[in-house]
Amino acid sequence: MLISNIEIIPGKKISKHLGMVQGNTVRSKHVGRDIMAGFKNIFGGELVGYTELLQEAREEATQRMVQQAQAIGANAVINVRFSTSSITAGAAELFAYGTAVVIE
Amino acid sequence: MNYQNPKIPEGINISDEHPLKDFAAMLIGVGVFIVAAFVIIFALAEWLVRFVPFEVETRLAESTVVGTLVPAVTTASKTQKYLTALTADLVQQQQLPEDISVTVHYIEGDTVNAYATLGGHIIIYQGLLEKLPNENALAMVLAHEIAHIKHRDPIIAMGRGVTIALAMASLSGVGENAVAETLINQINFLTAMAFSRDQEKDADDEALKTLLAYYGHIKGAEDLFALFQHHQSFEPPEFLSSHPVNQERIDNIRLFQQANNYTGATRPLPPL
User: Which family does it belong to (chain A) (predicted)?
Assistant: First the structure.
């Protein structure tokens, strides 16, 4: 599965356009990480737990988007975009979307 | 370019796992966490309470148990004097730390009981004293209760009780002032709480050593439990009762007797 955030793949011809596919997830870290992040707020620095949270959420969202693409017979997703939003305190939504295509 | 818009199958972004399964897993997780937290707090409280100075315990006893469980005025009767003297002898044998003082209180009444409570107070009822066949059995009772005081068992039991009360209060979400109030109201109940079976067994062992040191033998110690066995028509199974079952305690005494094979005669109780 080819995933790209450009609209055309150089040197490849898109033979089929299958519409939009999307993957999303809302995740949180465990309470221990939240407490650690609370402490980190006092001293400053990277909130490693939340960086990890977003990393995991991105992977999950991408994987779900790819699953959708596979389900409709695509072999590439182009023009992929990510978006994120905060749902509740300590939880984040990651949303990945793109266009499912078949390339030759 | 061929353009299609096929339907994407459901359930990729939303898993079809039953939410109750998730809920059950989380409930178990939280349950395990709470239990573990209580066990740790419990053990800590029990361990820390040993470091409370006896002086503090005495003051605590004055404001709580003295007057309710312990009569404020002790009658200077012959029996009381005899008990005080015997207790003093046994205390000497047990080599209590200097700061710990033991006071025995004789209470008239039919109750067949004796117990140790906060502040080094031992309460012994007329009902029990009348049933005892000899002084050695009485010494076993007193030495057992003195051992509880030596091991700081009453304050450990109180620490345990306070922890349970606090845990209950925090679980039921009572306000801060209410917690303090409830604790004060319940302190009599908390201090009267039973000691654990291990504490009882340790006190028995210590009492036997005391008897051996005082009389040169442990004859008569067994009589006490034989008496209990005789008078209790129904004995609750051990797991339901904080005291080790009487037969087990008798066996324990016999083992001790075998290991320390001294013989002697029991001393009769003076006319009381």
Answer: Belongs to the UPF0145 family.
The predicted pLDDT at position A96 comes to 96
Give DSSP secondary structure letters for B53-121. -HHHHHHHHHHTTBTTTB-SSPP--HHHHHHHHHHHHHHHHHT--TT---EEEEE-SS---EEEEGGGE
The CA distance from A63 to the nearest CA of chain B, in Å, is 9
Neighbours of B123 (CB within 10 A): 20
Which secondary-structure segment (H or E) carries A82? strand A76-86
**Do residue A16 and residue B2 have CB atoms under 8 angstroms apart?**
yes
Give me the domain span that covers residue A69.
2-103
Q: What is the pLDDT of residue A63?
A: 95
For position A15, which CATH number holds?
3.30.110.70
Q: Indicate yes or no: CB of A64 within 8 angstroms of CB of B13.
A: yes
Provide the number of structural domains found in chain A. Answer: 1
For the question of an ipTM over 0.95, the answer is no
Q: What is the pTM of this model?
A: 0.65
Please list, in sequence order, all residues whose beta carbon lies within 8 angstroms of the beta carbon of residue B258, skipping any fewer than 6 positions away.
none
Number of H helices, E strands in chain B: 10, 4
Residues of B in contact with A15 (CB under 8 A): 1-2
Verify whether the Cβ–Cβ distance B12 to A14 is below 8 Å: no
Provide the chain B residues 2-31 that lie in CB contact (below 8 A) with chain A. 2-9, 12-13
> How far apart, in whole angstroms, are the C-alpha atoms of residue A72 and residue B8?
6
For residues A2-31, give the mean pLDDT: 92
Mean pLDDT per segment of 10 residues, for chain B of length 272 residues? 86 84 92 90 84 86 70 71 90 87 86 84 86 88 91 85 74 63 58 71 89 86 76 55 72 83 78 71
Q: Would you give the end-to-end CA distance of chain A in angstroms?
A: 13
How many Å apart are CA B105 and CA B66, to the nearest integer?
11
CA distance B7 to chain A (A): 7
